[in-house]
Amino acid sequence: xxxxxxxxxxxxxxxxxxxxxxxxxxxxxxxxxxxxxxxxxxxxxxxxxxxxxxxxxxxxxxxxxxxxxxxxxxxxxxxxxxxxxxxxxxxxxxxxxxxxxxxxxxxxxxxxxxxxxxxxxxxxxxxxxxxxxxxxxxxxxxxxxxxxxxxxxxxxxxxxxxxxxxxxxxxxxxxxxxxxxxxxxxxxxxxxxxxxxxxxxxxxxxxxxxxxxxxxxxxxxxxxxxxxxxxxxxxxxxxxxxxxxxxxxxxxxxxxxxxxxxxx
Length: 264
Ligand SMILES: NC(=O)c1ccc[n+]([C@@H]2O[C@H](COP(=O)([O-])OP(=O)(O)OC[C@H]3O[C@@H](n4cnc5c(N)ncnc54)[C@H](OP(=O)(O)O)[C@@H]3O)[C@@H](O)[C@H]2O)c1
Description:
Layout: E1 18-22, H1 27-38, E2 42-47, H2 50-60, E3 67-71, H3 77-91, E4 96-99, H4 117-144, E5 148-153, H5 168-189, E6 193-200, H6 213-222, H7 231-242, E7 253-256
Parallel strand pairs: 1-2, 1-4, 2-3, 4-5, 5-6, 6-7
Helix pairs in contact: 1-7, 3-4, 4-5
Bound molecules: NADP nicotinamide-adenine-dinucleotide phosphate.
């Protein structure tokens, strides 16, 4: 059983925890890595672009913990297995897993090629990547017997059909991740592993720079907060969900979209 906090001292502290963040080399993943590093966690970044990962590790070094990157393609179970093994060897275990790696696609189903390449790419990365990582990391959390925390980065697109941009593989993968979050919260609960999701709305990153200019003013008008989110804001929510303060929170998906969905 996960014990409750008794006061606010250290309630948001992640000191001594090891956090694995897929896609932590840039965008939202780096915002989460920075927020967790600033809150005391040691960080393992898993991604494919090792040069960008080395830059991210260098940027984190000012926070004084242990930070490393590991090459990993989340679409490949053998690659995930090898990376998780390497992390456990280097850090002695995993306390926090953030399934953040993701790709998007703005193409209507009938515009896709004969092999549905775009469909499989998105589903294999966003949904199956999350499943691969959860399978490998949760086994180690269970065997270590110290509990753990898993955070799945989904999207508000998992709750609605986006205006102006066909993105069915992305929306469906994110909706499935939302439900996977609930299923895993129940299945892994007996090992004191909490599982939650974060569903961001439009947030500044390399993924969001591909949004057509003509859509930007619509999006900002539609968003109650009047602007895109920042990666560090998603990071702050991830820190809360991973912290002792969130001991009673599992199986939820927290929307952080500046109120965008309220007007949909
Ligand atoms: N930006 C937004 O507006 C927004 C809104 C809602 C949700 N999200 C979600 O937030 C997450 C991060 O998105 P972002 O905006 O930060 O995008 P981004 O800047 O394009 O970053 C995507 C990250 O995913 C990693 N990645 C992609 N494919 C991978 C693979 N096969 N194996 C391992 N890593 C892989 C990339 O690293 P490598 O290329 O080095 O592998 C990169 O670090 C995604 O799940 C996205 O769906 C974003």
